[in-house]
Amino acid sequence: MSPLDRRHVLRAATLGAAASMLSACGSAAPSSRAGGTTALPSHPSTSTPTPTPTPKATVAAVAAGLPFEIHSGPTTTDRVALTFHGQGDPAVARSLLAEAERADGKVTVMAVGSWLDSYPDMAKRILDGGHELGNHTQNHVAISTLSADAAYAEIARCAQRLRQLTGSIGTWFRPSQAQDCTAVVAAQARRAGYGHCLSYDVDSLDYTDPGASAVTRTVLDQARAGSVVSLHFGHTGTVAALPAILDGLRQRGLRAVTTSELLS
Q1: Per-residue confidence of the chain (264 residues) as pLDDT tens digits?
Q2: Count of H helices and E strands in the chain?
Q3: Beta pairing partners, 69
Q4: What is the pTM of this model?
Q5: CA-to-CA distance for 218 and 95, rounded, in angstroms?
């Protein structure tokens, strides 16, 4: 893989942190750096199908040289990352994945741990489709309002579930009900083993259910080379909008890839 154009990522991270605003999951907060890594807490395992593991080499390749908080990728690429908040009706999620695959698109799913508890087979479905899984906390609470220990528990429990189902905690963490990581949340994400907080530079607003055409227009009006787009499972309007979004990107010479591919 070609090396990442770090200048664009650093510039995007700086500009994105300064311009953070209300997101699909709630209020944004500025990013910050914190350190420390400890083992994940134990969590009872359950019997689930074994999906294809996430390649561990991907984590190392992506992590090198990136800032902690990422809003977008290099503008010199022909790639865009469509990232989905993973919860809601699994039938709607499967329909959305099928639409992406029909257009040869790949997506990143920031899964909620309780959703994976309820529908563990979705982890295998996502990875088997060539897509990517990340951590969007265990219960999708307003993580920025929690104490350090409570925030850590939210992140670590979801990480443990991802490891049980896939053999990996995934490369990416995204805070719940917030666009960016606070200093406290950043420290706990690192403590749980994550080197990056994945934000975004395009909010589709699909969670407001404005209709497929509105979702399509919002994404295509804002997306550019290197964009990270925030979308959601669980909304039929998003499923209906996806073919037009992918077609519109393709007409601009852009293709939908996983976040790891965008930033590699």
Answers
A1: 444 444 444 444 433 433 333 344 543 333 333 333 333 333 333 333 444 344 443 444 455 678 999 999 999 999 999 999 999 999 999 999 999 999 999 999 999 999 999 999 999 999 999 999 999 999 999 999 999 999 999 999 999 999 999 999 999 999 999 999 999 999 999 999 999 999 999 999 999 999 999 999 999 999 999 999 999 999 999 999 999 999 999 999 999 999 999 998
A2: 10, 8
A3: 197
A4: 0.78
A5: 21
Residue 108 DSSP class: E
Separation CA 204–CA 223 (nearest Å)? 10
- Cα separation of 39 and 217, whole Å? 44
Question: Smallest Cα–Cα separation from 128: which of 102, 161, 101, 103?
Answer: 101
